């Protein structure tokens, strides 16, 4: 279920990147190979933890600031908004399963408090 929701978020990111921004085609966004690496890492966030900007920039071979500009140009959203959406979606799913307490879910997803 988590994997399916992650894929849904990533498909939406790709759709936004192709639709309105055209990403690397305009010279302002991430190249397709860079976006693929970012998507793969974000989809593994539940198992490996949510990545930071430095890690994603390193995967793309660009500086932190340049990555943030390119990511927003490709997706239409800043990285922190995409990560927050992904965390909240995972929290909703986990709360719906009724197997974990709110405190456990907050700790699992890296929230500061329940």
Write the layout of secondary structure elements.
Layout: H1 2-21, H2 32-43, H3 45-48, H4 53-60, H5 64-75, H6 79-97, H7 102-109
Helix pairs in contact: 1-2, 1-6, 4-5, 6-7
Short account of what is shown:
With 114 residues, this protein is mainly alpha-helical.
Distance between the termini: 22 Å
Oligomer: single chain
Q: Treating each run of at least 4 consecutive H or I residues as one helix, how many helices?
A: 7
The percent range for helix content is over 70%
Let me know the average pLDDT: 85
Order of helices and strands: HHHHHHH
Q: Flag low-confidence runs.
A: 19-25
Major beta-sheet overview: none
Indicate the radius of gyration in whole angstroms: 15 Å
Based on CA inertia axes, which overall geometry fits?
elongated
How does this structure look, described?
The chain is mainly α and 114 residues long. Helix content is 73%, strand content 0%. It has helices spanning 2-21, 32-43, 45-48, 53-60, 64-75, 79-97, 102-109. The two termini are 22 Å apart.
List keywords for this structure.
mainly alpha, 114 residues
């Amino acid at each position: 279920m988590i994997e399916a929701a992650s894929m849904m978020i990533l498909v939406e990111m790709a759709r936004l990147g192709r639709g309105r921004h055209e990403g690397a085609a305009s010279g302002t966004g991430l190249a397709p190979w860079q976006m693929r690496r970012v998507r793969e890492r974000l989809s593994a966030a539940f198992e490996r933890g949510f990545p930071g900007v430095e890690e994603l920039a390193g995967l793309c071979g660009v500086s932190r600031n340049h990555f943030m500009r390119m990511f927003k140009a490709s997706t239409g959203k800043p990285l922190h908004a995409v990560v927050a959406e992904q965390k909240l979606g995972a929290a909703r799913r986990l709360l719906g399963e009724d197997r974990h307490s709110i405190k456990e879910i907050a700790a699992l997803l890296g929230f500061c408090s329940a």
